[in-house]
Amino acid sequence: MSAKNILKVEELVFERNHSPLFHPLSFSVDSGQALHVEGANGAGKTTLFQLLTGLLQPSQGTILFCDRSVEECKYEYFSDLLYIGHQSAVNAMFSARENLQWMSPANTSSKQIISALASVGLQNYTHTACHKLSAGQQRRVALARLLTSKANLWYLDEPFAALDKQGVDFVESCMHQHIEKGGSIVFSSHQDLAKMPTYKLRINRCGEVD
Amino acid sequence: MNMTGGFRDHLWRDLLLAYRRRGDLVKPLMFFLMVSTLVPLAIAPEPERLAKLAPGMIWIMALLATLLSIESLFSDDFRDGSLEQMLISPDLLVMPVLGKMTAHWLVIGVPLTLISPLIGLWFSLPMVALLPMILSLAVGTALLSFIGAVGAALTLPLRQGGVLLTLLVMPLYMPVLIFGSATIQSAVDGLIWFNPLLVLVALLAIAVALCPLATAAALRLAKNA
Predict the structure, then answer these.
(1) Does ipTM surpass 0.85 in this model?
(2) Beta strand spans in chain B (E)
(3) Is B160 on the interface with A (CB under 8 A)?
(4) CB B81 to CB A88 under 8 A?
(5) Backbone angles phi, psi at A95, to 5 degrees
(6) Could you give the 3-state DSSP secondary structure of residue B44?
(7) What is the DSSP letter of B105?
(8) Quick check: B76 contacting A, CB < 8 Å?
(9) pTM for this one?
(10) What range defines the domain where residue B106 resides?
(11) Is-contact A83 A54, C-beta < 8 A?
(12) Is the Cβ pair B85, A50 closer than 8 Å?
C-alpha cells in the first residue's frame, strides 16, 4: 500500500433539514484505484459528489487530499480534479468543439479537441450547435473531457447515463486507462463494470440497512 | 494563478453567447423604443411637456430594461451545470463574475446608451443635454448591471425569483436613478451637470470593487441552498 491516500474521507455526514441524509461515510482512494459508489435513487450519491467537490459543505467529517485537509490545499486539489456531474455543463448555443475547448485546460490545442471529439464519435458534429444534438451526444461532448483533462482525480457522477453501448465502452476504456496510469476515480453507477476491478462503496439512506 | 484569463474568457464567452442569441438581445432595446414611442402618444405630443419628462423617463426606461435582462445572467449556467464547473475551478471566482457583469453591460447598457440620443430627440430634449445624457447612461447602466448581478446571484436558486429580485435590487437602484436623471436635468436647467455625474462615477468605482465579491459569495451560497 502506498504511503499517501490521494483521497481520504472520514466520518462524513451531511444533514438536510436537521436529519442526516446517509450513515457516516469513511473511505479512501489510492492512486490506481477506482471507487464505485452504489446506492438507491435518492440515497445521496450526487450529494456525496457535491460534498467532495466542495459545492456543499459537510455537516461533520473531513475530506483529506494527499493527507492534507482540502481547505488547506484548495488550489492543488481543484487543479487536480475533474468533475463531470449530472448536468454536463454543455451550453446549448455553442458547438461541440467550442464546448469542449471551453471545458478543457487552457493550453489544449484545437487538434487535440478535434481528435477527442472523433474518439467519442462526434467527428461530423464538431461545428453543430449542441441544442441540435441528442441527449446522448451532448453527454459524449462532456465525456470527451476525459481525453483532454490532465487531472489525476476523477469524479464521475453517473457517467453512463444516456449513453449507448458503444459510449459505455468508450467511457469504461478511458477509466481503465486512467487507472493503469495511476490515476484515481470515484464514480457512481447502477451497473457493474466488466473490464476493470473496482472497490465498492454502498450508500444507504439513514435508517435503511442492507 | 490565472487572474485576468478568467475575466477575459468569460467576457468573450458571454459576448459570443449574446451574439448567438441576437433575438433576446433586441428585447430590452425594443422595450426602450416602444415605451418612448408610447409616452408621447399617451401624454401629449407637446415638445415643452415632453422635454420636462424626458430626463426622468429615459432613466426609468434604462433601469427597467436592465432589470428585465439581469435575471438571466447566471440562470443558464446554473441550469446546465457550467456554474458548478466555475465554482470548482482552482482560480478565483471573482474574475469570471466580473467578466460576466462587464459583458452584460456591453450587451445591454452600451446599446441603450448608443440609441439614447434618438430617444432624446424624440422627447425634444435640448441639445445641451445630449452629452450629459450619454455620459450618465454609459456610467449608470454599468452600475445597474453590477448591482443587478448581486441580486441575480442571490435569487438564483429560487424558482420564481423575479419578484424578489426586483424588491431586492430596486432600493439599490434608487441612487442611480436619482443621480442619473439629475445629471440630465441639471444640463437642461443650465446648471453644472458634472457633479451628479461624478457621484455616479464614484458609485461605479465602489460597485466594481464590491459587487463581484458579493456576487461570487452569493453564487457559492446558491449551490448550498
Answers:
(1) yes
(2) none
(3) no
(4) yes
(5) -75, 165
(6) coil
(7) I
(8) yes
(9) 0.90
(10) 4-224
(11) no
(12) no
